[in-house]
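Dear support,

I submitted the protein below through the web form. The confirmation email said the job was done, but the results page showed an empty box. After a refresh the structure appeared. I'm attaching both so you can tell me whether what I see now is the final result or a partial one.
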Amino acid sequence: MSEQDKYKDKLSPEAYEVCRLGATEYPFSGKYNDFWEVGTYVCACCETPLFNSESKFRSGCGWPSFFESLEGKVNYLPDHSHSMVRTEIKCKQCDSHLGHVFDDGPEPTFKRYCVNSLSLNFKPST
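What the results page shows now:
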């Protein structure tokens, strides 16, 4: 089985479009946009831990937002699509598209990791 077939079998068609092809879910549609349980957000493709719930905040942008990722778990790539200059974020382990990071977040980092819910799964703290 190819790597892409593995993800097609694991993910919904919508999650596949986001994670493997770089699509974006509609704002305010994701299951984690207004979700506030304590735990860890992991990659929907490979289950690598990416964000702690303690870094999640209400940004009002329509996607789950975090002020920091877990150290060494995210890759940063220049994105010049849609006539914009942005920084794309991807899972360092499996190269899954997560979303983008911006410099308009809260203290202490002033970063806003704007992440597609479809690219995440949630593991509650036990």
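Response: this is the final, complete result; the empty box was a page-load delay. The two ends are 35 Å apart (CA to CA).
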